[in-house]
Specification:
This protein has 238 residues and is mainly α. The protein is 73% helix and 0% strand. The chain is built from 8 helices and no strands. The longest helix is centred in the N-terminal third of the chain and has 57 residues. The protein starts with a helix and ends with a helix.
Length: 238
């Protein structure tokens, strides 16, 4: 009886040991499968990131700014349509949503970006007008695509192309140009305001005529006489 009890105890102990070993093996296999699954997931995510990064690198440098601008324009067009459907003025509705701080910040940014310092020369005035007209351009992409399909290879002419000078503008395009030219003529006829007066500027003139002469002389010779002028102001001129 004693020997039977010992054999039974030994068999029970062996079964327990085998059960524990089996449980440990199952646990290790489960962890291994989890690690294998996580590795595959990481490999998949890394591949997706590499593909997305490659797409971003192939895009133009200012793509994000263009995308934001297009999204903003789409949002603005939707708001304009909603206001038109309700019979409201979009500009008035938009101004009601603008705070005083935003309006002041926008005005400062506008002056800093394209400050109007008055007439300084025909070249500067022409360049300012070019910038203003360039900002008003709204390309018609549908007409552009249609014209490119109709022209084929002649759409991008080379030195051997014979299509140069054969383009005929549309009636709408001519009407827009005439309207814009008439607006410029009307604005030019009304333009008679004085230059903005700067209170912080140094007073180095005795009358208005002398002020104009000094500005003209400063424009042409200021960079050559800057050191002499500073010495005279400090009293160290020889």
């Amino acid at each position: 009886m004693a020997s039977c009890s010992k054999d039974t105890a030994a068999a029970t102990e062996e079964e327990t040991t085998e059960t524990l070993a089996s449980q440990k093996r199952e646990e290790r296999l489960r962890k291994f499968r989890e690690l294998h699954f996580k590795r595959n997931e990481a490999r998949k995510l890394n591949h997706q990131e590499v593909v997305e990064e490659d797409k971003r690198l192939k895009l133009p440098a200012n793509w994000e700014a263009k995308k934001s601008r297009l999204e903003w324009e789409l949002t603005e067009n939707e708001k304009k349509k909603e206001c038109a459907a309700r019979g409201e003025d979009y500009n008035r509705v938009k101004l009601l949503e603008v705070t005083a701080d935003e309006a002041e910040r926008w005005e400062r940014k506008k002056k800093k970006k394209n400050p109007d310092t008055g007439f300084a020369g025909y070249a500067e005035a022409q360049f300012r007008q070019y910038q203003r007209l360039a900002k008003q351009i709204r390309p018609d992409l549908q007409s552009y695509e249609k014209q490119r399909e109709e022209s084929g290879e002649d759409f991008y002419p080379t030195s051997n192309s014979l299509s140069y000078g054969t383009h005929v503008p549309t009636k709408d395009g001519i009407d827009r140009m005439v309207e814009d030219v008439e607006k410029q003529i009307e604005k030019r006829a009304k333009y008679s305001r004085r230059r903005a007066y700067n209170d912080d500027a140094d007073i180095d003139y005795i009358n208005e005529r002398n002020a104009k002469f000094n500005k003209k002389a400063e424009r042409f010779y200021g960079k050559y006489t800057a050191e002499i002028k500073q010495n005279l102001e400090r009293g160290t001129a020889v």
